[in-house]
Amino acid sequence: MNNSLHIGIEAMDEKHDEFLALLLQIQSCSSDEFMHLFEEMIKHTKEHFAFEESIMNEHNFYAKTEHFEEHANLLGEMEYFYDKAKKTPAFGKSYINDYAYEKFQRHIINIDSQLAMFLKERNISL
User: Fold this and answer.
1) Which tens digits make up the pLDDT trace of 16-30?
2) DSSP letter string over 8-74?
3) How far apart (Å, rounded) are the C-alpha atoms in residues 62 and 45?
């Protein structure tokens, strides 16, 4: 997908590519598909974050508390907009179209890159 967001840890880059593909799909989907795809994005995000958190726990990542908090905040926000979209779909579409990519990008650049550097410095492969 967007190689500029790759952090050099293949397993993590694959998860990020999957998320981005899903985000692009939901941004261009029909109204009938929107809520289902939004729900799929939340499911994928939960699995994605659980994967990263297991890595951090296994390797005792020094900033895991902050990273876990960031995950909780991002997921909480996503679920908030999903719940709002049940009543007012435009609310969810605004989040997806105007904010989700930026938040995804910031998370990779500012947060996931720290984990990637930690893993690379220790020659840990996933």
Assistant:
1) 999 999 999 999 999
2) S-HHHHHHHHHHHHHHHHHHT--HHHHHHHHHHHHHHHHHHHHHHHHHHHHTT-TTHHHHHHHHHHH
3) 22
User: Do residues 16 and 34 make contact, with C-beta atoms less than 8 angstroms apart?
Assistant: no
Which one, of 51, 91, 93, lies nearest residue 71 by Cα? 51
- For 3-121, CATH number? 1.20.120.50
* Pair 45, 73: CB distance under 8 Å: no
Sequence ranges of the domains in the chain: 3-121
The mean pLDDT of 51-80, rounded to a whole number, is: 97
